[in-house]
Design brief:
Largest sheet: 7 strands, parallel
Structural class: alpha/beta
Strand order of the largest sheet: 3-2-1-4-5-6-7
CATH class of the largest domain: Alpha Beta
Low-confidence stretches: 41-45, 224-233
Number of strands: 13
Mean pLDDT: 85
Number of helices: 21
Radius of gyration: 23 Å
Strand content: 5-15%
Oligomer: single chain
Shape: globular
Helix content: 40-55%
Length: 498
């Protein structure tokens, strides 16, 4: 376990990194940290047990808990499992939502239960004592300020977002201090606040590392991407500066991450990266695949599909929806001579929209579809509930995924479970954990690769041909290892071992 001396090293390293920003930041941070450090010797760590007989409070740090992504599904499945199987555990969710998020006439508790059921098909059942076991700490004003500052940070965003998360976590923990601080957002710098200032044990479910060796390679090779701007990739000097910045940040990330008592990760890809970064961690890094509602999707017939491609994913830059549009345009331009009459392939982009930034991104994607000449054959489905998602999956012949180095890929599993011939990016979780190449799906990395895969999926012909049906069966069988039941068994097994 890290002692006070170790923590001082972390703080010193953070100040060194902050010196890359400006002197005022260093001074302000010193003043901010001074009272924290003075309280260290007064803090004692609690040692809660998660056995059936002992009581404990778990605080889930997930400010965007009402969003519709895979991370939120993991959060609510964990809470549902604890409500059902651990009556001795009380839970607090630190949320950036306001009490009136679901309308002035609806309480937040009632609204979130309905939202979770509609979007994730997850029921929060705790009997009469549900709201004594599950409560919410609202930090909307602080979270809105956090988002505003984060979006305004055009340089050193990793450092700035880490600092903002630390401040936000401190605000949350001041309002309610649990026995166990459970981070499900990947905000490792909050660990030292929870552990050393509030005496919490630290649990973490890591969806993806904040920084990785792959990111360093991307910068070093000066490859343009959503996280490596053109001004960086085109300049050798700026590339060197960014490499130093990333290496320093990686060292700090490894130190603070190593303070976690229990670490769960969503894939072997994430596990390998976390192990290489959090070198000082004394606990095991446990793979716990995220839950997918495969039962609800396996009832979808494997036949009766349209010549339709479906993409599932939040409208975030890393999802690379632009690549999907470019690949689809290339596919349409290579229309073969033996095309079935009246065959008109269609692309549906389905996902959640979190706010103004995502709205702007969707607007840009619509414009790109028009520029590529494919707008009439592209449809956007925004913030749809689970029943509509299921309907779209029952229509689609092909599922599409284009995120480079996706940590896992719940959307990929959902498409396979629903019987879509799934084409995913040849990297990360889809490559290492989910898809068995050319058996339950296909892997691609460029517009040309994706266009070829679409052709191989018979989108210009019979969507229910023998080859497609065989691949759908194999994909559905593969998806069963990522079911809700498998997640529940794994999660309870981890808790029982503590």
């Amino acid at each position: 376990k890290m002692n006070t001396f170790h923590l001082l090293i972390v703080m010193f390293s953070m100040l060194s990194l902050l010196s890359l920003l400006s002197i005022p930041y260093v001074v302000a941070t010193c003043l901010l940290l001074l009272p924290f450090l003075l309280t260290l010797h007064r803090r004692r760590h609690r040692t809660p047990s998660l056995s059936q007989s002992n009581c404990a409070t778990i605080g889930f740090y997930h400010p965007a808990c009402s969003s519709g992504g895979g991370g939120e599904r993991v959060l609510w499945c964990m809470i549902s499992i604890l409500l059902k199987n651990r009556p001795n555990i009380r839970m607090v969710v630190y949320t950036g939502d306001g009490r009136d998020t679901f309308g002035p006439e609806t309480s937040y508790a009632e609204g979130i239960v309905k939202h979770v059921s509609d979007h994730f098909h997850v029921d929060l059942k705790g009997g009469e004592d549900l709201w004594t076991r599950l409560s919410f700490v609202h930090v909307r004003d602080e979270y809105e300020a956090f988002k505003k500052k984060s979006s305004g940070a055009r340089r050193f965003t990793l450092v700035m977002e880490s600092i903002y998360h630390m401040v936000l976590a401190y605000t949350c923990l001041k309002k309610s201090t649990p026995d166990i601080f459970f981070d499900t957002t990947g905000s490792a710098f909050t660990f030292i606040i929870a552990k050393y200032l509030f005496g919490c044990k630290i649990f973490a479910y890591v969806h993806y590392p904040t920084i990785s060796t792959d990111m360093l390679c991307l910068v070093w090779k000066r490859r343009f991407s959503y996280m490596n701007a053109g001004t960086v990739s085109s300049s050798q000097f700026i590339t060197y500066v960014k490499m130093v910045y990333y290496i320093l940040f990686g060292v700090l990330y490894g130190l603070v991450g190593s303070t976690a008592d229990v670490v769960m990760v969503n894939s072997n890809w994430t596990k390998n990266h976390i192990r290489s970064l959090w070198k000082f961690s004394k606990g095991n890094t446990i793979v716990l695949y995220p839950p997918c509602d495969t039962d609800a999707l396996e009832s979808i017939p494997l036949k009766g599909r349209e010549n339709m491609i479906l993409s599932i994913g939040q409208f975030r830059p890393e999802k690379d929806h632009a690549l999907q549009l470019k690949a689809f345009a290339l596919f349409l331009n290579k229309k073969p001579a033996n095309t079935l009459k009246n065959c008109n392939p269609k692309l549906v982009l389905l996902g959640s929209c979190r706010g103004p930034d995502d709205e702007d991104r969707i607007r840009d994607l619509r414009k790109l579809a028009e520029d590529l000449g494919v707008a009439p054959q592209v449809e956007f489905v925004i913030n749809c509930p689970f029943p509509e998602l299921r309907t779209q999956l029952s229509r689609a012949s092909v599922g599409l995924h284009t995120m480079w180095n996706e940590h896992f890929g719940i959307g990929v599993v959902e498409m396979m479970a629903a019987g879509c011939v799934t084409v995913a990016h040849d990297s990360g979780g889809p490559k290492e954990d989910i898809i068995e190449r050319d058996v339950g799906g296909m892997l691609a990395s460029s517009p040309e690769n994706y266009a070829d895969a679409m052709n191989r999926a018979h989108l210009w012909g019979d969507a229910d041909c023998k080859e497609n049906v065989q691949m759908r069966k194999a994909g559905r069988e593969r998806a069963r290892r990522f079911s809700n039941e498998a997640f529940e068994e794994g999660f309870l097994r981890i808790l029982s071992s503590l």
